[in-house]
């Protein structure tokens, strides 16, 4: 079967264009009134935009239909994420929550009670949730690094440990915490638990980072969690998390393509009107070449992203292709935004322009959801097999 990404079906093209119009006509004007050093959209502005997005039928488009979402596939998801990212506060989430809030995807494998208590209300009420995997001992290799433990005690588990870089834990309603239920079983000893924010014993401290949306450090001191909050079975936590890696990585890739393309649009307008030394910037090859390079990089990044997403929708193992797309698109996106900032000169550095937000967001994107080096390692391991791990094949 040939790759279906070159010619989008009419209904998807229409949806993509309508979402793009919504971002340009609804989100961008609201952001224009927000002070440049704000950390995101003001709550009342966000609520108004969410109501409009819901009315327009753009609500939680990737969540399963049976839980109140749009049920879109991975390919449709990346096509839309690219457009949803074309506004200032689009990191870490394209749309900044305007298009709804999805529960951590592992919960789609949760019990009927967990679906009723957490999944449906999250989609309905735009609750936010955190995912706590990384620890101070390391995030690249969580299967080895996780030290947090969950010990069964009658009808509850007691969680003790220390999570690092847990985004959104300071504002979330609840989160998924990964902890060991068997210290000797490696990745098979890891389980996932739903933990309500504010549970006694949890201490959350914001950690400022270079992007607008800070992260947090969370300490668990004998935090009591009902046994029914275990997601799946003991030992399944890591496997459940792995199942959703493809979507997460491809969303970052699509977001990078979207902001890179928007930064080029802004720089093109500038180059066609800005004069130096008696001629338009558009006439200088030193300006033309980065524009041409950007176009090539964006086309390549989009192709890799769409191809991986399409493979995933066919039910094939798309993990390596998702790694390729994530590392290429986030690195290319970072280079493109940087080059467009250079064309804009001083204006490119201002908070009036969205480029400096995207530049910082893309810098972080090269580390989160698996650093570039880990993605490259995964690609090389796919090529080399056991030899990549120093073992005979
Ligand atoms: C803003 C932000 C938000 C985040 N949000 C979350 C969140 O919500 N939930 C969560 O669980 N985590 C989150 N993270 C954590 C993120 O996933 C980790 O930072 C990332 O996985 C890297 O882990 P680490 O920082 O511990 O770096 P380490 O694992 O210590 O690695 C450090 C660096 O070493 C290099 N490296 C590591 N291993 C190899 C290798 N085998 N070969 C070559 N180079 C290597 C990489 O360059 C890597 O960046 C967030 C991080 C940031 C910065």
The side-by-side strand order for the widest beta sheet comes to 1-4-5-8
Can you tell me the overall shape? globular
In this structure, how is the largest beta sheet organized?
4 strands, mixed
Number of domains: 3
Could you state the CATH homologous superfamily of the largest domain? Butyryl-CoA Dehydrogenase, subunit A, domain 3
* CATH-defined fold name of the largest domain: Butyryl-CoA Dehydrogenase, subunit A, domain 3
Protein name: Acyl-CoA dehydrogenase family protein
InterPro entries: Acyl-CoA_dehydrogenase, Acyl-CoA_Oxase/DH_mid-dom, Acyl-CoA_Oxase/DH_mid-dom_sf, AcylCo_DH-like_C, AcylCo_DH/oxidase_C, AcylCoA_DH/ox_N, AcylCoA_DH/ox_N_sf, AcylCoA_DH/oxidase_NM_dom_sf
Keywords: FAD, Flavoprotein, Oxidoreductase
GO molecular function: oxidoreductase activity
């Amino acid at each position: 079967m040939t790759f279906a990404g070159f010619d989008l079906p009419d209904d998807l093209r229409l949806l993509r264009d309508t979402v793009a119009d919504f971002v340009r006509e609804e989100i961008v004007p609201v952001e224009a009134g927000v002070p440049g050093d704000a950390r995101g959209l003001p709550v009342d502005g966000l609520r108004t935009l969410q109501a409009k997005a819901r009315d327009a039928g753009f609500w939680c488009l990737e969540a399963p239909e049976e839980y109140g979402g749009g049920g879109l596939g991975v390919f449709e998801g990346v096509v839309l994420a690219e457009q949803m990212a074309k506004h200032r506060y689009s990191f870490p989430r394209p749309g900044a929550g305007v298009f709804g809030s999805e529960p951590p995807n592992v919960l789609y494998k949760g019990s009927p009670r967990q679906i009723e208590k957490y999944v449906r209300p999250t989609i309905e009420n735009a609750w936010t949730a955190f995912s706590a995997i990384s620890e101070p001992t390391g995030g690249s290799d969580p299967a080895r690094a996780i030290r947090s433990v969950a010990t069964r005690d009658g009808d509850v588990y007691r969680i003790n440990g220390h999570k690092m870089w847990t985004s959104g834990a300071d504002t979330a309603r609840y989160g998924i915490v990964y902890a060991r239920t068997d210290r000797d079983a490696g990745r098979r000893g890891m389980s996932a638990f739903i933990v309500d924010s504010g549970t006694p014993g949890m201490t959350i401290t914001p950690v400022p980072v270079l992007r607008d949306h800070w992260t947090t450090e969370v300490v668990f001191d004998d935090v009591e969690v009902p046994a029914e909050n275990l997601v799946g079975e003991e030992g399944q936590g890591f496997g459940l998390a792995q199942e959703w890696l493809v979507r997460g990585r491809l969303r970052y890739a699509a977001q990078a393509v979207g902001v890179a393309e928007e930064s080029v649009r802004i720089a093109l307008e500038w180059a066609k009107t800005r004069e130096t030394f008696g001629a338009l910037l558009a006439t200088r090859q030193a300006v033309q070449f980065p524009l041409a390079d950007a176009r090539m990089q964006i086309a390549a990044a989009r192709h890799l992203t769409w191809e991986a997403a399409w493979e995933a929708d066919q039910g094939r193992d798309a993990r390596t292709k998702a790694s390729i797309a994530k590392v290429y698109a986030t690195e290319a996106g970072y280079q493109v935004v940087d080059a467009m900032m250079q064309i804009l000169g001083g204006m490119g550095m201002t908070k009036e322009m969205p480029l400096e937000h995207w530049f910082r967001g893309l810098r972080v994107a090269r580390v989160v959801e698996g650093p570039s080096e880990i993605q490259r390692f995964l690609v090389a391991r796919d090529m080399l097999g056991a030899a990549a791990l120093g073992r005979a094949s």
